[in-house]
Amino acid sequence: MGHYTAEVLWERGDQDFRGGRYSRAHRLRFDGGIDIAGSASPHVVPPPWSDPAALDPEEAFVSSIASCHMLWFLALAAKDG
After folding, report:
1. What's the pLDDT score for residue 81?
2. Widest Cα–Cα separation across the chain
3. Distance from C-alpha of 3 to C-alpha of 7, rounded to nearest angstrom
4. Structural domain of residue 70, as residue ranges?
5. DSSP reduced 3-state for 12
6. pLDDT (mean) for 59-78
7. Is residue 1 part of a domain?
8. Around Cβ 38, how many Cβ atoms within 10 Å?
9. Which residues contact 29 (CB under 8 A, 6 or more apart)?
10. What is the pLDDT of residues 15-54, one digit of tens each?
11. Contacts of range 16-20, beta carbons closer than 8 Å, 24 or more positions apart
């Protein structure tokens, strides 16, 4: 089995952390060199404290399952011709 790494980068800045008024925007970096904007979902944390254009954890989870399912199906289809 392979070894996979991911790095999550977030900067506090000078926002009101204790008051909950801070950005949830962050960067996701993967071992293959991909760098993705990440954030809390705007359905959970409203903008400007989240970034609606960024990938949220729920989207990442659902897309990883969908990708695995598709790749499994493609492998089965390729075996059957």
Report:
1. 81
2. 59
3. 14
4. 6-80
5. coil
6. 98
7. no
8. 20
9. 6, 7, 8, 9, 35, 36
10. 999 999 999 999 999 998 999 999 999 999 999 999 999 9
11. 20/49
* Residue 1 pLDDT exceeds 90: no
Q: How far apart are the first and last CA of the chain?
A: 27
Q: Which two structure tokens, joined as six digits, stand for 8?
A: 């999550």
In a domain, 24, yes or no: yes
CATH of the domain at 40: 3.30.300.20
Rounded average pLDDT over 53-80: 98
- DSSP, residue by residue, 18-71: TTTBS---EEEEETTS-EEEE---TTTS-TTSS-TTSBPHHHHHHHHHHHHHHH
3-class secondary structure, 6: strand
Place of tokens 């071992």: 31
CA angle 56, 4, 42 (to 5 degrees): 5
